[in-house]
Amino acid sequence: MFRISTNHISEGMVVGRNITDVNGRVLLTAGQVLNSRYIQRLRAFNIKYIYIQDDLDIIEPVPVVRPTTISKATASFKRCYDQCLKTGKVNVQTVQSQVDNIIKDLMSNNDIMFGMAEVKEYDNYTYEHSVNVCILSLVLGISQDYSKLRLQALGIGSMLHDIGKIKIPLEIINKPSALTYEEFIEVKKHPLTGYNIATESNDLPRGAAQAILQHHEHIDGRGYPRGIDYTDIHEYGLIVAVADVFDALITDRPYRRAFSNYEAIQMIQQKTGTHLSKRFVDALLRHVNLYPPGTVMVLSNEDMALVTQENPADKNRPQLKLMFDANGKAYEMDNVMDLAEHKDISITKVLGTEEAESNLAKFLQIHKSG
Ligand SMILES: [Fe+2]
């Protein structure tokens, strides 16, 4: 299966996975052939990406959290957010039940490894982002052997980290260009607003409010709202900061496309020691696959190749399908290589999202017409 931007889909492509809207309602089921009506419908629902069936033989890793758990949590959080808009309070019990479901899914994995980002399909950034930050934060908490109670507190705090954004005008939140000074001042209020909302709600576990208040603090003291440094930032605040930055990077924004895991980790490392804590960045690195299936890379022999499958024993040397040689000539569809068996060949470049997708589309086109 192949994840493709709905800008690039065309009639005749076969849907690879059920496509759902933000409420979990199925718009199109796997196996359906796209026609112009379906394509229009997907665009009307603002679906950004879909999975299509292809002959690339990409084998996706099993997601660390089940898609149904994620879509239920997203829909539930959306309701929680809307309710908070009306009442100024959050229903912590409801958030906790979604957090518990996520913890249960995460705990059922022997080895938690993030491959391709799973949830980027709706234009509901705040809700999806909140759920993703919750998942990533919990993974970091699990990596520190947190107890169930601490995981719940961290999970609730991370899910609610941006709840203070309910007070920011939507035109600022969704602004596709850089913020003005005044707008940024407005945005910078959300940790404290969120903290106040959370602490006025019933049943908030200890530490959760700190995760909300401190997720934009930097370890060198240059963050906001208080400009406190490493010694004063709660561990949950340090964790949510890492999860927040990573998820923002691997998600499409109105002004740019998502970065790949590889690009995002490089950018995160540049922020380590000033903005982000090394301890939790290192923890994140242990759980993110730099070359998940679907990645397009250039090798030291100048071949361009697609990652089709993880090598569980060596996540840095995956299974590949060769696409183009050094002269740009396309390989046959079935030209595969196990990088773990070719230690003399190294990875010299990982293509960015846009470049990867256009090369894959070109490769597929060549084999369709040939
Ligand atoms: Fe935030």
Give structural notes.
The chain is an alpha+beta fold and 370 residues long. The chain folds into three domains: 2-52, Molybdopterin biosynthesis moea protein, domain 2, CATH 3.90.105.10; 67-285, Hypothetical protein af1432, CATH 1.10.3210; 296-369, no CATH class. Helix content is 42%, strand content 10%. The strands form three sheets. The chain has a five-stranded antiparallel beta sheet, covered by helices on one side. A two-stranded antiparallel ribbon has the order 1-4. Strand 2 (19-20) and strand 3 (26-28) form a beta hairpin. The model has no long low-confidence stretch (mean pLDDT 90). Fe (ii) ion binds next to loops.
Keywords:
single chain, 370 residues, alpha+beta, Molybdopterin biosynthesis moea protein, domain 2, binds fe (ii) ion
User: Which structural class fits the helix and strand makeup?
Assistant: alpha+beta
Unreliably modeled segments: none
The ordered string of helix (H) and strand (E) elements is EEEHEHHHHHHHHHHHEEEEEH
User: Under CATH, the topology of the largest domain is which?
Assistant: Hypothetical protein af1432
How many DSSP E strands? 9
Return the CATH architecture of the largest domain.
Orthogonal Bundle
CATH class of the largest domain: Mainly Alpha
Estimated share of beta-strand residues:
5-15%
Helix proportion range: 40-55%
- What multimeric state do the chains show? single chain
